[in-house]
Amino acid sequence: MNSPTKVWFHARNPSKSEPGECAFPLEYVVAPFRGEPFAYATVGTPPNWALPPGTEPRYTLYRTKDTSEPIVVLVAQGQQFTVLTPDHHVLAELRLPPPEQYWRRVNEIVRPKQPLLRARGASIGSIIKSVLCIPLILIEFICYLFTEGDVVIDPPTRTVWKTTQGLWKRTALKQRIGVPRYRVYGKHLDHRIAYAQSVAGLWRPDRGDDG
User: Fold this and answer.
1) What's the superkingdom here (predicted)?
2) H or E stretch including 27?
3) What is the Cα–Cα distance from 106 to 89, expressed in whole angstroms?
4) Is pLDDT at 18 greater than 90 in this prediction?
């Protein structure tokens, strides 16, 4: 899935009909905002798949609604996820921030023989935009009083994964904070890793997502 295309997508909960159409317990759907889904995520690993020593199962992303075409498998060691191909080739390590880190949480994507990608929760530019949006937030509050909560204005905060070396930092992935909305820059990041990151970002140790 090395593609130069830039794609907006999100990891969402299944619709009412989708779980019944899948041959596995469907957990999340990775999809564009229009068109067919890119991947279907379930907890655990593919059938008869050997789990690497010292790791715990997390998710498998399938291309279709059966188990015939796994895209990637996510396994974990603590807060670190490893993204593997079905034949156990390592695509990336996803380093998630510890739960106790609240301010500008650090995420990293480590790929073999490729530049490190690092992101801090809420980019500087998005924080500035959020401050400038304070008048809109006040308007939202006033609208909330008169519409019983039907009006919502999201602040333009986002997290951006960029290369860490060189004068010019290359953007590989963006996430809008508050909703699992991503934009992957295929020239700098394999789409499969981006899809895996979107699902890994939803994992919580207290939610029973262990395989």
Assistant:
1) Bacteria
2) strand 26-31
3) 25
4) yes
